[in-house]
């Protein structure tokens, strides 16, 4: 029984100028759309992903909570659910399938969001790997529609090194004599297995193998992992589908298209969404340095790298059991630091003094977080530029005051390095 829906797009003119015939997007929704349609999360699929695998990111105890948000999980073209080389009409079947870009994918996803659901604003677009690349594309292609993006282990433009890595796994697949330039009568099994074995060396970091972390995934040795990856690709993937999406990946560049005309910096600067970039420092092909460069130009962005020996696959649901705790620790530290900065801004701009139990801090002084806990802060009456803020009863309740402080402080997110 089919557990997803399909949106028929008809014939679509691609960025290349060619026509994509009888295009269809497969998708699944979770949760309910609220009255003002302000709770929409778009969750595209990653390279070997689909809406079912995306469910690993969704849960009542997770940030992507179906009890709070209306989540639209959209299958990328070429993944076997949406229009793909193995399920398209006869004139586009197999090797005849058109080359698609992420611009084409997001153009069609936009049609689904606006025409099917009548949605005008998206609260968040997020995803891992190629899904993260799509979040950048959404924010650049429709900057007035997307309020926030969180790409993890992704980039807004595929680097040359990333491109070369993909050429390697592609060469392994197409070396199979049964490949026949995509016009095969039966799947090139040897090529698919070689693709999986080569990819496994890139998906995890050097430390993953050095520390034998594959044992935590149930493998006795590295050869067992390699065989599993080989068999998984041979059993579950169509070769043309894999290479269709691989080409889309290689062409990833948010500046392509009529809006930016290949001006990459302009495209980055045009992103209006609040942006959190979350690379893994041990990822071998979506490198942290690429995200560092992006963050210089995306206006409302912050870079929050993570460390994991699982490398690119750290974000694959269930792989790195410590990653959730690591994120929680980093978020607590980030919030603590933000409290300190925001309090400093409030104090330096206030007319009166701000008191900490046992300590008096004069206007203009920096805040020493060890001089008192936030639960003991006594707020003064601020000047006309401020509104009175009630005293938080405990440390956790302070979180609700952060948005108010952000609104009061117009310098904090304008790039003033003093804060």
Largest sheet: 8 strands, mixed
For this structure, the quaternary state is single chain
Proportion of helical residues? 25-40%
Q: Tell me the overall shape.
A: globular
Please tell me about this protein's structure:
The chain has 419 residues and is of the alpha/beta class. The chain contains 12 helices and 11 strands. The strands form 2 sheets. The chain has an 8-stranded mixed beta sheet with strand order 1-2-4-3-5-6-7-8, covered by helices on one side. Strands 10-9-11 form a 3-stranded antiparallel beta sheet, with no helix packed on it. A hairpin with a 2-residue loop joins strand 9 and strand 10. It starts with a strand and ends in an 11-residue tail after the last helix. The C terminus is likely disordered.
Task: Characterize this entry briefly.
By secondary structure, this protein is of the alpha/beta class. The protein is built from twelve helices and eleven strands.
Attribute tags:
419 residues; alpha/beta; eight-stranded mixed β-sheet; three-stranded antiparallel β-sheet
Write the layout of secondary structure elements.
Blueprint: E1 5-13, E2 19-30, E3 40-44, H1 51-54, E4 70-74, H2 102-116, E5 124-128, H3 130-141, E6 148-152, H4 160-174, H5 189-203, H6 206-210, H7 222-236, H8 239-250, H9 264-269, E7 274-277, H10 288-295, E8 301-303, H11 323-349, E9 354-356, E10 359-361, E11 377-378, H12 402-408
Parallel strand pairs: 3-4, 3-5, 5-6, 6-7, 7-8
Antiparallel strand pairs: 1-2, 2-4, 9-10, 9-11
Helix pairs in contact: 2-3, 4-5, 4-8, 5-7, 11-12
């Amino acid at each position: 029984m089919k557990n997803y829906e399909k949106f028929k797009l008809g014939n679509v003119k691609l960025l290349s100028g060619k026509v994509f015939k009888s295009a269809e997007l497969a998708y699944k929704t979770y949760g309910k759309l609220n009255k003002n349609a302000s709770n929409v999360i778009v969750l595209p699929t990653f390279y070997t992903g689909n809406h079912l695998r995306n469910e690993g990111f969704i849960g009542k105890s997770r940030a992507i909570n179906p009890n709070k948000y209306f989540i639209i999980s959209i299958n990328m073209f070429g993944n076997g659910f949406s229009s793909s080389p193995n399920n398209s009409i006869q004139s586009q079947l197999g090797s005849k399938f058109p080359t698609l870009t992420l611009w084409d994918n997001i153009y069609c996803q936009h049609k689904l969001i606006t025409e099917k659901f009548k949605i005008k604003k998206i609260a968040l677009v997020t995803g891992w790997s190629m899904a993260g690349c799509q979040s950048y594309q959404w924010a650049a292609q429709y900057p007035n529609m997307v309020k926030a993006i969180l790409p993890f282990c992704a980039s807004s433009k595929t680097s040359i090194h990333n491109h070369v890595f993909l050429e390697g796994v592609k060469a392994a697949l197409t070396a199979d004599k049964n490949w026949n330039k995509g016009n095969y009568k039966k799947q090139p099994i040897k090529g698919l297995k070689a693709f999986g074995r080569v990819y496994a060396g890139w998906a995890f970091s050097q430390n993953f193998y050095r520390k034998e972390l594959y044992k935590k995934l149930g493998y006795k040795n590295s050869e067992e992992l390699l065989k599993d990856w080989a068999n998984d690709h041979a059993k579950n993937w169509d070769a043309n589908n894999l290479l269709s999406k691989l080409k889309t990946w290689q062409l990833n560049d948010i500046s392509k298209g009529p809006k930016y005309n290949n001006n990459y910096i302009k495209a980055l600067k045009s992103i209006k969404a609040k942006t959190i970039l979350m690379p893994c420092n041990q990822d071998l092909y979506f490198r942290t340095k690429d995200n560092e460069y992006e963050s210089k130009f995306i206006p409302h962005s912050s870079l929050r790298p993570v460390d994991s020996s699982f490398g690119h696959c750290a974000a694959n649901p269930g792989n790195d059991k410590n990653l959730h705790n690591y994120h929680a620790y980093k978020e607590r530290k980030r919030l603590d630091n933000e409290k300190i900065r925001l309090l400093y801004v409030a104090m330096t701009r206030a007319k009166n003094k701000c008191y900490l139990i046992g300590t008096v801090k004069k206007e203009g002084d920096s805040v020493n977080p060890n001089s008192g806990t936030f639960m003991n802060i006594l707020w003064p009456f601020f000047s006309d530029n401020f509104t009175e803020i009630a005293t938080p009863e405990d440390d956790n309740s302070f979180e609700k005051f952060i948005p108010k402080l952000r609104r009061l402080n117009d310098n904090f997110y304008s790039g003033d390095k003093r804060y």
